[in-house]
Amino acid sequence: MSDRRAVIALIIGIPLAIIALVFVKPYDYSMSLVVFGASLVFIISACILDTADEFQTASKPIPAPDETPIPQPSPSHAEDYVPAVEKPAAAPEELPVETIEGIGKIYGKLLRDAGVPTVADLLGEEPERVSKICDVTVEQAERWIAMSRFSWLDTISEEDAEAIVFATGMDNLESLASADASTLHKEIEDALAKGDVRVPAGYKFSKEQIQKWIDEAKSLV
Q: In this structure, are residues 127 and 145 in contact, taking their beta carbons and an 8 Å threshold?
């Protein structure tokens, strides 16, 4: 019984009931009924007060002692656009395999342990082997390898390479070299609108930039 008022009412009610039944009743039956009735009022009040207190306590959520609030993901894209990493400007053998969008620390470690530490090494791998190494689908492995064919170009960032592969299905420089900038731009914008391609907040694709991709591809094929 946690309510202090209930305890006091019970302390008063029980002795009154004893007095009514043991001491008053033998001498005055009517008076004993009055005293006993008063004792019942105190006892019932004690029960009501205690029940109400327990109900109020149960209705409040009790946090675990070590419980801490779980942070919720922001509705906006968690990654911020960093212009400094827009252009790798490096040879494939100089770029870590994590340069490829979607290959983070976990997949990167698996690939490195399997002898695939750079973009150049990934270019020479079969999708089936990459799939087994990282325990991903062959389709995902194919996309990583396809992105590796674009991401090392000076004008193409890892986000650009992802957009090219996911939005258009291109997997080689020859296809990019023969593409039309306006058509490619529309395909990428449509894929962004559908959510098929995700880029950091603030990242933009322009026809002028896409034309630079195409021009560089043409210079290499």
A: yes
